[in-house]
Structures are given as structure tokens and as C-alpha cells.
Write a sequence for this structure.
């Protein structure tokens, strides 16, 4: 571990490129939704036969997870040395 | 001849030899012993039994069948990977303890009766506590002590349950047990502690992050998967397991999102993955049981890979706290890539191991009509991608550049990680090889267009949720903190209540002591007054007064004689 010295900027250091990845991910998601129209998906549990079920569920699940975890943090967060005192 | 020795004892013997061997040979011993044990398992094959007369019992020291062999193979592979990963670690007790621990767990898997199981159950508990302590420092000491208490309690429950069963049925055989007897219930609880059932889970998050960079890798492989094996052997199709397992998949992911120590995040995801296996065992179908075994096999490998990558980060950067890391991909590109393979495997990306194993359990839950359970499992699948698949690599290797510039992980660590990564991809690409090891016939095709598409949708939109929350500043930042979990009962409130009780008891004692003191002093004063040197009863009376008294008495007698 050497002290901070910034080398040459890497490709990922530029916010512009991160935005490119972000938009690329959205396009991939959109492509997967379009594929949903083409591929005949075999429903496993009934409701997953709906159009875009997995995409919507995955997005909603993660947002709900993060919001719930933020609430949980309010209740359970303690200083780092809580058990050492 | 070598077939006559239980495979686990090969590792135990190697562990005991390590301290006697010259330092240059110790690394080789840690790699050669698992290879020998693996070869021995291949040689022996299924249907082998080694019995021993002891304590008036016929003990089945070794019993091999497809179920025990599947766990046996992956345990020896994990021990082998650990041998390479910790090649240079010469931390006193850790390497021998790790070998004894792996050997005891391996021997426990092949135990054909409950007494043999108990012996190796306890040996693995003690050896693994030594691995925790080898982390060094007071925190590791405390966590190791709590860990040992919990593991020994599990052993006590197992011994009590086995005793009750023996009294009832006269047999110690370790076959399907069932929940319908008190002995069975105790054994269920003993296995539940090892599998980290909800509320019995916190020993895992408490102890694993306190071990050394190499120690956590070995800890993550054996204890909990031994519990899964024992559940699959003893309680297949026990319905409560479906609900217990479902809870296990869901609740740890909330903690994983807000946890700062990345190895503790992984410990929460151990819990979440065990939940899937427990559900599979509870379903009890061919697909569910096969899925549980297959997922345990895959999980040992990708979890080892993830813990190895975090171990390498701890070794080089000196910390695994999310708050202090970031941008390490510049210094440790190989570790970054290998960590991402582990992350893709645990997240069940197509072509990685989790995709072909976890889906068996999900499919079985759906087929059995457990739609609610299936929805929770799907939520947990998105959640595990979120915290183990994205959070771990993102905060360690990307995020904001922490400015840490360190060396890439040492060669032996990279080799171990690369082998684990190859196995993760190998299972994902050639699932038939793993399916051939499973205890029941497999009728499942993971690579259908439908399955690949639905899984990709789930994962890509989970990733979109993460990046959307991140870019909009909604994602909770990494914070230095301790998050209260069920260990608060015995680390926080428990000791405080005990301390308060002790204080009240002392106060009560002091009070009663005071009361006794006051009574005693008053009593002593009364005695002093009456009998003391000037006390009324201690005075010397003149003999004349005695004569007067007697004369008065005689006079009274005389008078009464005449008058009455």
C-alpha cells in the first residue's frame, strides 16, 4: 500500500464513459424486453408468463430491498466500537 | 490399505504432521493430503462400509453412497484449493487446524451412525475455533469463543438427541430421522445451528470476518455445508424446512446491503444461499434434493472464490471495509476479474455454476405449487445479485478511487482463485458432469431459451436498479458502523441485563447485610446491657441479700400454711 498518487486517467475514470456503460445497460434491458415478445417463454409458476415479468420484478425487488435496508439501518446502526466498549 | 482409512483421517493426520514437518514441506503437505483423500474417494466409490466395534456398539466409521460422495468430493476439492491459497501462510496454528477441521468435516460426512457423527462434529467445531483464533487479536479471541460456544451447543443437542433415539429404538444408525420424536427434534435443532437457521445464524457473521485472510476461506467451506448434508440425510421432505429456508434466503440480504465489512457481506450471503438449499431439502422432491446437493457443491466453490478474492484484498490493501476501498482494479486486475467470475456464479448468470444449480430448487418450488415461496426465492435471487454480485466487486474494485495502490495478489493465491473460477465456469458450461454426481436421477434441462431469457431479464434489471439508485444518490452510502443483529441478545442486551442483575443482587446482599448488622449490633448491645461487666445479671450480689430472700420465701410458705 503506497500513498495516494494518481496515475494516468483510466477509461473508467471519465464520467462520460460510465454514462456510456449505464445507457448501454438500459439498451440491453430494452432488447431483452423485446426478446420477450419474440421468444415464447414457458411460465414456471403461472404469473411469470406475463410480458416482462422478470424485468419488472427484478427492478422493483431491488428498489424495495434498498429502501427497506435504509429503514433497517435507522434501527440497527451503532458506532463501530459498540461491542468493544 | 489406504482404502481401510477414512478419507477424513488422511487430512487429520496431515494436519497433525504439519507442525513436525520442516517449514518448506508444510505447504506441500496441505496440497498433497486433499489430493490423496480425493483419490481415495474415487478408488473406494459408492457402497463401501467400514465398521468398527467400540464401546459395545458397532460403529459405521465410513458409509459411502452418492449423497455422501458428492459432499466428499467437493470437501476435498475445497481443502485442496485452500492448500494452494494458503501456501505461504505459516501462521502457527492456522494451517494444521484448517487441515484437521477439513478432515473432521469430511469424516463426519461419511459417518454411518450418530455416535461417529458426533465425534467428528465436535472435532470440526474445536479445530474451526482454532482457525478463528488464528486471526489474532482480542476481537478474534472473543468471536472465536462465542463461535465455539455455539458449535459445542450444537454438539450437545446432537448427543442428547442421539441418546434419546437410542433409548427409544435401540439404534444409532444415521438414516432419515424425521421430526416425530423428541430425539429427532433435538437432532433437527443441532443441524439447524450448523445451517445457521434464522436467529441461530449470527455466529456466522460474527466469527467469519474475524479470521485471517486465508482462515475465512476454509471456514466458509465446511461447517455450514456439513449441516446441509446432515439435513439432507436426516430430514428430507420435512415441511418446516421450506418455511425456514425461505426466511433464510430473504432476511440476510437487507443486512448485506447496509454492511460495511465486505467479508461480513459475504457471510450474510452464505446465509442466503443456505436458505435455497434448505428449501430444496424441505421440498423433498427428486429435483429439490438434487438441487440442494448441486447448489451446495457449486456454492462451496464460488463462495470460496469470493472469500479468496476478499482475502487477497485484505492481504494487499490491509482492509476489506467498503468505506476505505475503491478503484483497486488498477492495482489488482486479475483479482478483480476472478472476483467477478465468483460474483457471476453466485448471481446465477447463464454459463456460470449458480445458473444450473439454484434454478433446480426454484423449479421444484414452482412445480410443487409453492408460488409464494417461489416469489420470495426470486426476490432473494435479485437480492443476492445486488449485494454479492454487484456490491462486492463494485465497492472493492471500482466505485470512487480510494487512492490505494498495492501489489497484485501473490501467484499462489491467483492460481487457487483461477482454479476455483475454472470450476465455476466448468459447472456452468457442462452441468451434466455435476448432475452425474447427484444422489437421484436428474431430469432437468437448465439451458432453455425461456430460462436464459428470464434469468437475464431478472439480472439486468436488478443491475439497472442498482445503477439508477446509485446515480440518483438514493443508494445508502457505505458507513463505518456495527449493525445490531441477533447476536445483540448475547453481546449487547444479555451482558447488560446480567450486569444489572449482578448489581441488584449485590445491592440486595448489601442491604440484607446491613439489616443483619443492625440486628446483630442491637442484640449484642442488649446482651451487653444484661450480661456485660456492669450488666444487671452479671452483678455480684452480697450473700446477705440471698439469706434475706430465702427468709422471705420461708415466711411466705409459713403464712400460706396457716392461712390456707
Amino acid at each position: 500500500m503506497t500513498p495516494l498518487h494518481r496515475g494516468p486517467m483510466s477509461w473508467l475514470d471519465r464520467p462520460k464513459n460510465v454514462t456510456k456503460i449505464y445507457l448501454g445497460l438500459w439498451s440491453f434491458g430494452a432488447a431483452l424486453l423485446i426478446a420477450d415478445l419474440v421468444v415464447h417463454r414457458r411460465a414456471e409458476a403461472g404469473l411469470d408468463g406475463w410480458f416482462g415479468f422478470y424485468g419488472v420484478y427484478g427492478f422493483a425487488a431491488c428498489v424495495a430491498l434498498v429502501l427497506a435496508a435504509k429503514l433497517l439501518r435507522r434501527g440497527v446502526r451503532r458506532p463501530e466500537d459498540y461491542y468493544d466498549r | 490399505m489406504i482404502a481401510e482409512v477414512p478419507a477424513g483421517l488422511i487430512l487429520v493426520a496431515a494436519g497433525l504432521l504439519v507442525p513436525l514437518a520442516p517449514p518448506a514441506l508444510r505447504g506441500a503437505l496441505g496440497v498433497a493430503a486433499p489430493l490423496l483423500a480425493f483419490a481415495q474417494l474415487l478408488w473406494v466409490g459408492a457402497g463401501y462400509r467400514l465398521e468398527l466395534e467400540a464401546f459395545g456398539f458397532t460403529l459405521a466409521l465410513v458409509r459411502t453412497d452418492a449423497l455422501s460422495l458428492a459432499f466428499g468430493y467437493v470437501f476435498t476439492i475445497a481443502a485442496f484449493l485452500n492448500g494452494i491459497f494458503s501456501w505461504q501462510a505459516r501462521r502457527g496454528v492456522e494451517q494444521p487446524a484448517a487441515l484437521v477441521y477439513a478432515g473432521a468435516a469430511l469424516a463426519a460426512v461419511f459417518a454411518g451412525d450418530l455416535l461417529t457423527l458426533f465425534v467428528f462434529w465436535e472435532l470440526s467445531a474445536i479445530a474451526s475455533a482454532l482457525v478463528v483464533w488464528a486471526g489474532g487479536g482480542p476481537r478474534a479471541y472473543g468471536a472465536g469463543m462465542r463461535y465455539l460456544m455455539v458449535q459445542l451447543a450444537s454438539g450437545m443437542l446432537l448427543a442428547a438427541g442421539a441418546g434419546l433415539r437410542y433409548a427409544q429404538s435401540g439404534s444409532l444408525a444415521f438414516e432419515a430421522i424425521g421430526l416425530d420424536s423428541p430425539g429427532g427434534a433435538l437432532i433437527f435443532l443441532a443441524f439447524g445451528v450448523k445451517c445457521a437457521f434464522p436467529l441461530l445464524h449470527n455466529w456466522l457473521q460474527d466469527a467469519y470476518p474475524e479470521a485471517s485472510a486465508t482462515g475465512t476461506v476454509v471456514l466458509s467451506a465446511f461447517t455450514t455445508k456439513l449441516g446441509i448434508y446432515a439435513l439432507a440425510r436426516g430430514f428430507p421432505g420435512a415441511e418446516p424446512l421450506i418455511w425456514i429456508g425461505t426466511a433464510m434466503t430473504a432476511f440476510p440480504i437487507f443486512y448485506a446491503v447496509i454492511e460495511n465489512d465486505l467479508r461480513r457481506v459475504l457471510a450474510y450471503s452464505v446465509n442466503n444461499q443456505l436458505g435455497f438449499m434448505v428449501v430444496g431439502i424441505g421440498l423433498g422432491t427428486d429435483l429439490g434434493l438434487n438441487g440442494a446437493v448441486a447448489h451446495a457443491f457449486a456454492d462451496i466453490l464460488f463462495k470460496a472464490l469470493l472469500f479468496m478474492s476478499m482475502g487477497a484484498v485484505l492481504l494487499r490493501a490491509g482492509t476489506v471495509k467498503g468505506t476505505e476501498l475503491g478503484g483497486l482494479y488498477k492495482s489488482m486486475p486479475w483479482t478483480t476479474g476472478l472476483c467477478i467470475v465468483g460474483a457471476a456464479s453466485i448471481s446465477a448468470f447463464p454459463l456460470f455454476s449458480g445458473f444450473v444449480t439454484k434454478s433446480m430448487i426454484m423449479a421444484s418450488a414452482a412445480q410443487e405449487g409453492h408460488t409464494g415461496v417461489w416469489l420470495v426465492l426470486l426476490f432473494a435471487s435479485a437480492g443476492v445479485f445486488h449485494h454479492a454480485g454487484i456490491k462486492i466487486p463494485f465497492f472493492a474494485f471500482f466505485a470512487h478511487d480510494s487512492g490505494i495502490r498495492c501489489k497484485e495478489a501473490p501467484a499462489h493465491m491467483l492460481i487457487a482463485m483461477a482454479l476455483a473460477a475454472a470450476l465455476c465456469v466448468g459447472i456452468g458450461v457442462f452441468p451434466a458432469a455435476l448432475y452425474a454426481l447427484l444422489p437421484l436421477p436428474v431430469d432437468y434441462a437448465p439451458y432453455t431459451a425461456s430460462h436464459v431469457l428470464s434469468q437475464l431479464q431478472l439480472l439486468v434489471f436488478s443491475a439497472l436498479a442498482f445503477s439508477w439508485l446509485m446515480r440518483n444518490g438514493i443508494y445508502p452510502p457505505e458507513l463505518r458502523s456495527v449493525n445490531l443483529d441477533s447476536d445483540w441478545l448475547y453481546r449487547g442486551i444479555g451482558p447488560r441485563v446480567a450486569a444489572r442483575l449482578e448489581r441488584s443482587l449485590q445491592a440486595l446482599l448489601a442491604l440484607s447485610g446491613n439489616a443483619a448488622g443492625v440486628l446483630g449490633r442491637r442484640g449484642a448491645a442488649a446482651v451487653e446491657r444484661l450480661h456485660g461487666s456492669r450488666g444487671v445479671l452479671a452483678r455480684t450480689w452480697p450473700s446477705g441479700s440471698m439469706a434475706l430472700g430465702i427468709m422471705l420465701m420461708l415466711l411466705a410458705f409459713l403464712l400460706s400454711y396457716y392461712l390456707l
Q: What stands out?
A: Residues 1-5 of chain A have pLDDT under 50 and may be disordered. Residues 15-38 of chain A form the longest helix (24 residues).
